[in-house]
Amino acid sequence: MATAPKEINQPAPEVLLRVENVTKIYDGTVKAVDDVSLTVNKGEIFALLGGSGCGKSTLLRMMAGFEMPTKGKIFLAGQDITNLPPYQRPINMMFQSYALFPHLSVWENIAFGLKRDGMPKDQIAERVEKMLNLAQLGKFAQRKPHQLSGGQQQRVALVRSLAKRPQLLLLDEPLGALDKKLRETTQLELVNIIEEVGVTCVLVTHDQEEAMTMASRIAVMSEGYFLQVGAPDAVYEMPNSRKVADFIGNVNLFDGVIEEDEADHVTVRCPECVHYVGHGVSGHTGMAVGVALRPEKIMLSDKKPKGEYNWCEGEVIEIVYFGAHTTYHLKLDSGKVIKAQELNNTRDLSCGLTWGDRAYAHWNDLAMVVLAQ
Amino acid sequence: MATKQGFFTRLLDGKHAVIGIPYLWFILLAAVPILIILKISLSEMQGTSVSNMIDWSNGWPKLTLNFSSYQFIFSDSLYLKTYLSSIKYALLTTLICLVIGYPFAYFMARSPKHMQPTLLMLIMLPFWTSFLLRIYAWKTLLENNGIINNVLMSLGVIDAPLQMMNTPFSLMIGMVYSYLPFMILPLYANLSKLDMRYLEAAADLGTSPFKAFWLITVPLSKAGIIAGSMLVFIPTIGEYVIPELLGGSSTLMIGRVLWNEFFSNNDWPMASAVAVVMILLILVPMAIYNKSQAEAEMK
Known about the structure:
The structure holds two protein chains of two kinds.
Chain A: E1 15-26, E2 30-41, E3 45-49, H1 56-64, E4 71-76, E5 79-80, E6 91-94, H2 106-116, H3 121-134, H4 150-162, E7 168-172, H5 180-197, E8 200-205, H6 208-214, E9 217-222, E10 225-230, H7 232-237, H8 242-247, E11 252-261, E12 266-269, E13 274-277, E14 288-293, E15 299-301, E16 311-321, E17 325-332, E18 337-343, E19 358-362, E20 368-372
Parallel strand pairs in A: 3-8, 3-9, 6-7, 7-8
Antiparallel strand pairs in A: 1-2, 1-4, 4-5, 9-10, 11-12, 11-14, 12-13, 14-20, 15-19, 16-17, 16-19, 17-18
Chain B: H1 2-12, H2 14-41, E1 45-46, E2 49-50, E3 54-55, E4 62-63, H3 68-75, H4 77-110, H5 116-124, H6 131-142, H7 147-154, H8 168-191, H9 196-204, H10 209-220, H11 222-237, H12 241-247, H13 254-264, H14 268-298
Antiparallel strand pairs in B: 1-2, 3-4
């Protein structure tokens, strides 16, 4: 949904948050965050994506001020906030599972931060009213959090963190507590509200779909450091390592060796097939590389493709029907299993393959990414 | 027939039996004794025994209710004064226990997880010795030639012993000391369950830790505060042993009046009436509180 602003031909964006070589070590030995640096521009929605224990939450908690970095500095709008306690930072956070105060009404929850700032009563009322409208929760103002549905609680949590007009909004697994159907609608609502307010946002999630739909840039994290930072499409289509390719979406990985290395193409010989890649890569002949190929870029047929490149043959061992598409598991003669995703664009199953059939998988010469080992 | 069978199977099935046991317990050990006391309080002494409430001598039951004990309680200002003074001491004990117990429970709940069982053990340790012994121990500490006075005099801090025994001071020491664990335990149970994310959320919204304590921790531990206060207030209001041993004659408490009516005056109806009024004194405010709580929940 949100696409990255192209970085060329644009004025240099204003940097809001700068994290400089931040490291967090727990108990003297456990490195949760390992020498991470990043900048977040004003108005951006930036996602930290990774599995559990990758350090993304620790990094977010350091931005909020709940954890102090062992090393490194954090700047907000040029000001060093590394040692500022959370209650003095112009940053607000929407907590995972919301942390709405159970003894206060929706209205009081939203007004909580404003009251602490000593805002005059009439201004508080006005601001809370505005926030309630933003979240479409006007008639629930006097309810207690436990009397609301999950989606309503989520919106209260969001506007509570927006009420103080923070310079930076932190979202910790914002949709994690919602079921799948609700998540899709809420995701859009969330982005709409954030864009309407125009606040800069850092969000933490383990759900790549959530990161891709909401964020303008994604940092893929693993073991405390960034594997890759980039726009969602860049991270998906041009992963810079096997880990990223593997983590974001599904991928078939082939091991091979560069056989031909030309400026406009390369060929990679793998045990299963020969890949003809329609662009040059930084590498040399004889170099061991990996080739990543997304399942949706593979076409299946029962006829042998022409040419010697970019196809392989195998037996259909599994068919997984998803409704909109079907994933076929193809066991190649080498024993390797690859996945191919076929769009169900007609009502009869598109390629008529069934369990045990011999099938050919083929793809075009721009479908794959060559990865260094 | 179906309903009859249903009734008996329901009576015997596990679910009702399980609920039935506490009910049975309550009826036999609380409701029945209270009704007996109520009955005695409405009769009068005839020699060494209590008069019968229902007289069958004429062939039909004749009910005699004797309110003279209650009349006497409300006409003699000594009883009223004693009730008020009991409430005063019980409230004061509850308040002091809360002021001491809350920080105690708070730091216990916040101490490292592996320390908590030890701290809990220390709270319960006094229960391993007899209650009576512990009260007597206080006596030897607080007496005029007790340990505290002797130490202070030998250090030259005071010339003459301080009168601590048989004063409201010694009474409060004994009551707070004895009932403090009953305040700490429910508070600890409540505070250790407090979700730290609420405090983080408060800090995130600009609340200093001190303010967050009053705005978040205290309101969210309301149930623990109420439970602890009830557990201290209710037994202290009728406390007998501590006022008898530490309070002396100058501190009026209803428990001692009760004892005197029963065992010195041997006036059972009077003693029962005193007890019934005491129960009402505790029950009525509790019932009102529960009702208002239930109404607040409904909103």
